[in-house]
Amino acid sequence: MKNKKLSTHQSGNKKHHSCETLNLLTGDTILKAMDGKLVTALILIDLSKAFDSVNPTFLLTKLSNVGASPSVVKWFESYLTGRTQSVRIGSAVSTPLPVSYGVPQGAILSPLLFSIYTNDLPSSVHHSKLESYVDDSKILLSFTVANVDCLKQQREEDLYLIANSCSENELLINPGKTKYMLIGTRQTLQQLPVDMTINFLNETITPVSFAKDVGMTIDSYLTYDQHITNLVSSCMNSLCQINRVKNVSIKKL
């Protein structure tokens, strides 16, 4: 952080940053666009097996690039390499096999290491704004209805650049789980053409009316109605479960 080599567009593992601050940033960006009668294209990028795809050799180089000393890089080399894993089913245990890729699952350092691994991802786009929370990344691009024709090219160009950057880092994007939304006022959205699909990695992606982003369900009008509905439903289920066991006596140990 002191060297200012870490991306300002990464909210994970950073002081005074969290899922909440990223959601506020996203909402504020979209609301400002809506006030200016703009529509915002929001694309939520899905990475397949993100933590398991990290190349340790690449990661060690990236650690050096952000200012880690040679001794620290050497320590991480010992931490990341020479690992093995095995599978246990009942009493049967498989033969240990070497783990050549990935960062340790569940380790407190793994999200930070992944954030450093993808530190250069936000700078890959030309037209959009890319924001991340560890392995959850999204791009936002606001536009006027009059410029909708050139929007498709800009979105697909940025998606191609993101895919190319991920490919260079040996990360795999899952276009089938990538969500694409158009957010604006009812009046501006009604003025958009019927066909607003985009092509990404040989997949045709159609806009959805709502999607979950870093714990928050966002809808096309940014009303949060769907998020509130889901939250109320979850709370009611929990209350029903509590109600079923409220009269059950607890035996003293």
Describe this structure in words.
- This protein is of the alpha+beta class.
- It has a domain of 157 residues: Alpha-Beta Plaits (2-Layer Sandwich).
- It contains 7 helices and 14 strands.
- The strands form 6 sheets. A 4-stranded antiparallel beta sheet has the order 7-8-1-10, with helices on both faces. A two-stranded antiparallel ribbon has the order 2-9. A two-stranded antiparallel sheet has the order 3-6.
- A hairpin with a 2-residue loop joins strand 11 and strand 12.
- The radius of gyration is 22 Å and the shape is globular.
- The termini are far apart.
The ordered H/E elements are HEEHHEEEEHEEHEEHEEEEH
Q: How many alpha or pi helices?
A: 7
- Kindly identify the CATH topology of the domain at 19-55 and 101-220: Alpha-Beta Plaits
Mean pLDDT across residues: 91
Q: How would a textbook summarize the main sheet?
A: 4 strands, antiparallel
- Number of distinct beta strands: 14
Q: What is the CATH C level class of the domain at 19-55 and 101-220, in words?
A: Alpha Beta
Unreliable residue stretches: none
- Bin the helical content: 25-40%
Class from helix and strand fractions: alpha+beta
The proportion of strand residues reads 15-25%
Question: Strand arrangement, largest sheet?
Answer: 7-8-1-10
Radius of gyration over all CA atoms, rounded: 22 Å
- Distance from N terminus to C terminus (CA atoms, Å) equals 51 Å
User: What gross morphology would you assign?
Assistant: globular
